[in-house]
Amino acid sequence: MPDNITENLRDDLAGTSATPDPETRASEEDTYKNRFDDITLLNFTQNVSARKRYSHRIFLITTGWLISVITILVAVGLAKLKLSDSVLIALLGTTTINVLGFFVIVIQYLFNKDKST
Fold first, then answer.
1. Rounded to whole angstroms, how far apart are CA atoms 104 and 98?
2. Residue 111 pLDDT
3. Do residues 70 and 18 make contact, with C-beta atoms less than 8 angstroms apart?
4. pLDDT above 60: residue 72
5. Whole-angstrom Cα distance, residue 29 to residue 73?
6. Annotated region Disordered: where (predicted)?
7. What is the mean predicted confidence (pLDDT) over 91-115?
8. Domain limits at 35?
9. What whole-number distance in Å separates Cα of residue 27 and Cα of residue 43?
């Protein structure tokens, strides 16, 4: 290891100031602002893509569930399927509310008005 490292470092630092000149500072700020804008745009693009993909999937799951419930109700009504009253109440009440609640929660998250994206 050279003995003059300290001297070289002192010489290098002697020619530089602690604060950059305004032109260098403006250039760095523009660079960081451009990078921030690029990242923000990428984030926005990914969010839009995810919203399209997941909103369609959630709609299909919810629609499929509700069609299944209606099919079971029609089958019970036509005496093709025998279910007790407590099972029908559980099917119609708790599980359907849970599926619709899931739909609402996910949609509110995906399409949050408070977020910028």
1. 10
2. 74
3. no
4. yes
5. 64
6. 1-29
7. 79
8. 18-110
9. 24
Query: Which segments of 1-117 are extended strands (E)?
Result: none
Residue 39 has which token pair?
Answer: 């990242």
Q: Residue 1 falls within a domain, yes or no?
A: no
Residues constituting the chain: 117
Q: Per residue in 11-54, pLDDT tens?
A: 666 665 556 677 777 788 888 888 998 898 998 888 888 888 88
Distance in angstroms between the alpha carbons of the first and the last residue of the chain: 54
Question: pTM value?
Answer: 0.53
Q: Does a structural domain hold residue 40?
A: yes
Is 33 among the domain residues? Answer: yes
Are 99 and 62 in contact by the 8 Å Cβ rule? The answer is yes
Residue 6, amino acid: T
What's the total number of domains in the chain?
A: 1
The helices-and-strands tally (H runs, E runs) of the chain is: 4, 0
Interacting residues of 103 by C-beta distance below 8 A, sequence separation 6+: 58, 59, 61, 62
117, part of any domain: no
**Mean pLDDT taken over the chain:** 80
Structure tokens at 52: 């399209």
